[in-house]
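Example record

Each entry pairs one chain with its bound ligand, glutamic acid.
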Amino acid sequence: MRRTKILAAAGIATTALLALTACNSGSPNTPAGGDAPEPEVAEDVALEGSPTYDAMVERGGPIIGVKEDQPNLGFLDATTGERSGFDIDIARWIAAELGFSEDDITYEPIASANREQALVNGDIDYYVGTYSITDNRKEQIDFAGPYFVTGQGFLVSADSDMTEVTDVSDFNGMTVCSATGSTPIQNIKDNYPEIATEEYDIYSACVDDLLNGKVDAVTTDAAILIGYAAQYPDELKVLDGLFTEERYGVGIPKGDTALQEFINTLFTDGHDTWQEIFDATLGRSGITVEQPAVDPVG
Ligand code: GLU
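Structure tokens for the complex follow.
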């Protein structure tokens, strides 16, 4: 089972490696992204039968759940207050197609472990933040997408002798850090009892521990790790080797098929916009990744 997954992810591995090389040659400590052209706000939006959309209209704008410590993906610049990254621009694109401008959007930072509950409670209208589509999560919420595919990787100190991971069990006897409620931490806990784990609500806390030598590695999606390695090019490196397949979806309240279909149609028909967003954000690190086909049932 494990081996099948690794083989399935082999294609992604090559791409991620290319990305890493390109990324580390970039300017240090500068999260890329946020330069996608401002999306055109749709007028005369026709979306019948979506209670989530009706709530957004009533409120005058969407509340979107996001990450804000993941460079290139979902990042908040504390100095300028600017949000940037692939996920943020995907979130903005959806909002614009629903008829809302940037000023209408309320962003809500929500950690990995709290995403389903935020959607179930109606605290947010939709969530865009490295959110893998899983059957477990689909018991509580629905997904549109996928709009991106990556896999689990490992970030270690640049001084480490390791250059690649052939199996996750290479970390037996070591301590790896990841986010509570994430698929990577679950994978380690379920399948690798000889690896010690440390968890925090957000990945940047794991990165701090790695920089301070308190853990041996940070594990999560390679797309996320590449952003941290770019922030600390002299201190950190992403190892070769990818495990699992993480398909990113837009989290929406369960049963809102009208909203799900609206977003899926956008992803299917809007390939050029997807590419523009990708090129301006994650693509700047050198990754070349194809937009995945939408799965009508998430
Ligand atoms: N994509 C994985 C997940 O959804 C890891 C990244 C994250 O925690 O957001 O759990």
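DSSP finds eleven helices and twelve strands in the chain.
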